[in-house]
Amino acid sequence: MAKVEVGDAAPDFELPGTGGKTYRLSELRGKNVVLAFYPGDATKVCTAQFCSYRDNGERLDQLDAEVLGISPQSVDSHERWAQERSLNVPLLADEDLAVSRAYGVTGWVGPFAKLAGLGEAAPGGRYVMRSIFVIDGAGIVRYRHVSRTSASFQTVGDLEEAVAAIA
User: Which pTM value belongs to this model?
Assistant: First the structure.
């Protein structure tokens, strides 16, 4: 499995997302991008993470970056969760984990993942680790944070600091 590090070119991708849109990293060149990989829609910590982004929407809007959530659930699942929770971040469906694998943020479902309710959401026995990548306008990874346990998340304040550091 590849592992993307700070200073590496960000792997390009094309994924379907909420709002009936297809997202291509290459189309965001010239802008900073925050990729927020997360294990699963409607799980406890993922809900806390994306609701905190919603609740700090003004700060997120001021961020000099496009923020995108990526997980293995379907677009239909993303749409339901986004509507139920009034989420403000586009959610992209990486159902075959190709993008998550390219960024090196998948792990094997073990006892912790099963306790967190990820057993059914894990294609091929793998799950997505909660991770943040900040990519600059030239497509270079400038920040990387990967949580192997996925028990906590990067706050809007953490995202602000990471984006500000690339200016």
Answer: 0.91
Catalytic annotation present for 51: no
* Backbone phi, psi, residue 137, to 5°: -60, -20
Asked whether the beta carbons of 4 and 133 are under 8 A apart, the reply is: yes
Which pLDDT band, with edges at 50, 70 and 90, does 105 fall under?
very high
* Angstrom distance (rounded) from CA 165 to CA 163: 5
Q: Is 145 left (phi over 0), alpha (psi -120 to 50) or beta?
A: beta
**Residues above pLDDT 90, as percent of the chain:** 80
- pLDDT at position 83 over 60: yes
Q: How far apart are CA 67 and CA 65, in angstroms?
A: 6
Q: Which of 4, 35, 45, 46 is catalytic?
A: 46
Q: Which residues contact 130 (CB under 8 A, 6 or more apart)?
A: 37, 38, 39, 45, 46, 49, 146, 147, 150, 152, 153
Q: Is the pLDDT of residue 111 over 70?
A: no
Fill in the amino acid letter for 4.
V
What does the alpha-carbon distance between residue 98 and residue 109 come to, in Å, rounded to a whole number?
Answer: 17
